[in-house]
Design goal:
The chain has one domain: RbsD-like fold (3-Layer(aba) Sandwich). The protein is 30% helix and 17% strand. The protein is an alpha/beta fold. The longest helix has 14 residues. The chain has five helices and six strands; from the N terminus they run H-E-H-E-H-E-H-E-H-E-E. Helix 3 runs parallel beside helix 4.
Amino acid sequence: MLKGISPLLNADVLYALKSMGHGDMLVVVDTNFPAEAIASQTVLGELLRIDNVPAADAVSAILSLMPLDTFIDDAATRMEVVGAPDELPQVQREVQAVIDKAEGKHWPLSPVERFAFYERAKDAFCIIQTGERRFYGCFTLTKGVIPPETE
C-alpha cells in the first residue's frame, strides 16, 4: 500500500500510467472485450488488469493520477451500443459521473461505433481489463498534461 495511491492500481498499471506521455491513450474494457488479442497490438504489447472491480472504480483510480487531454474533443470515449448508438447503459452513466467528478466539470464521453472502437484500441498505449461484467463497459482515456507549479 502507498499513501495517496488507490490500491486498485497495481505495479504494472502504475508503470504504464507513468510511461505514457501527453496524447497517449489507454483503454479500459469489460470482461467480454477481446482484450488479450487486441492488447498484443498496442504500444505496451501486453494486457494489464484491474481485476474484480467494476469499470467505474477502475476509471476512478486511473483518473486519480492521470489528467485527461484538454487539447482534443474525444479524450474520453465509450463504445456505442450496437443498434442503439444514443443509448447510455448504466455502466456508461457511472463512468460518466466518475469522469465529471475527476475533471470537476461535465466531460462528455464521445461515442465510438463498436468495430471502430476495436481499431482505436489497437492504436492505444495499453489496454486494462476490469472485472466489469455488464455489456459496453469499454472506454478510452487520453492522457493530458499537468502544468508546472506557479511561482
